[in-house]
Amino acid sequence: MEKDTPIETVRYENTIIAAIGDLANLEAAIQSRCRTIFLLTGNIFTLQDSIDTIHRASKKVYVDIDLMEGFGKDAVFVDYLHEVLNPDGIVTTRGNLIKKAKSLNLFAIQRIFVFDSRSLNSGIDLVLKIRPDAVEILPGIMPKVIRKTRDETKLPVICGGLILDKEDVDGAIGAGAIAITTSNSSLWNLT
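and the corresponding structure tokens:
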């Protein structure tokens, strides 16, 4: 699998990525037009079934490893994900786990939370040091921050958090994001 294929194709298929924070919403995400799902919930008992269900629906799944329960948040978990559970990639705030995923050729998305200029600059510095495959910015409603991150990192930028409506989606895409993650199911069928 080419490393730029999973996220880069999102922009051509559907700019919305369904973010699942409650497994009760998984079926709605599978039935939506979204081709990609970020799994923000799960545990040692549910994760394999969730990944398999998403793959059977011919959709990509990225696991937010910071939010999974019952697993260690360390490199061994990344090995286990890659070898046993087989998601299309991971999402994490942890640079060491991005490095481990990349060493396994597992697509790695670095999530950065931006709440002031200091957090933005330290997030960009981390991304430049770690070199993930893509960056996710939260909250995703800051066009200048999206442009700055894209321009400085030269990586695909995904935005999430506080995306309330189509105007927010259009603003983020217009600023250079390739996709939007949202748990708002009313936005999952936008193109």
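(Above: one complete record from the training split.) Residues 5-187 form a domain with the TIM Barrel fold (CATH 3.20.20.70).
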